[in-house]
Amino acid sequence: MDFSDVFWILVIWVPLILLWGFALVDLFASRHSGLAKALWAIAILFLPVIGVILYFALRPTDDDYNRASGIQTTAGNPDDLARLSDMNQRGLLEASESAQVESSMYK
């Protein structure tokens, strides 16, 4: 094996294979419907370069996933919320401070 063979393997083929694998892992971890996953998987498998580029260009961002599913991913830890409520009830926090801390937990 000469330098050009090693170059093509390390600089071109390895990153392409990693992107292809990441696209498939990301696809099956996404919230797409079964039919959408199947069609994207076919596109990624049979058109490896174009399919991967299209998948990453057209896939929804995490915010789009969360808005579509109604899941709030940055919710505070229940223990933190319980401690905040307890501090508020004991008078250690004013209502404005409590609201400020709580709003920062949900950003």
Give the C-alpha Rg: 23 Å
For the sheet with most strands, the description reads: none
Percent of residues in β-strands: under 5%
What distance lies between the first and last C-alpha atoms, to the nearest angstrom?
Answer: 54 Å
**pLDDT < 50 stretches:** 66-73
Note the run of SSEs as H and E: HHHHHH
**How many strand units?**
0
Structural class: mainly alpha
The portion of residues assigned to helices is over 70%
Average residue pLDDT? 76
The total number of structural domains is 2
Distinct helical segment count: 6
Label the overall shape.
elongated
What does this structure look like?
The chain is mainly α and 107 residues long. The protein folds into 2 domains: 1-73, no CATH class; 75-107, no CATH class. The chain has helices at 3-29, 34-46, 48-58, 62-69, 78-89, 95-105. Mean pLDDT is 76; it is low at 66-73.
Topology readout:
Layout: H1 3-29, H2 34-46, H3 48-58, H4 62-69, H5 78-89, H6 95-105
Helix pairs in contact: 1-2, 1-3, 2-3, 5-6
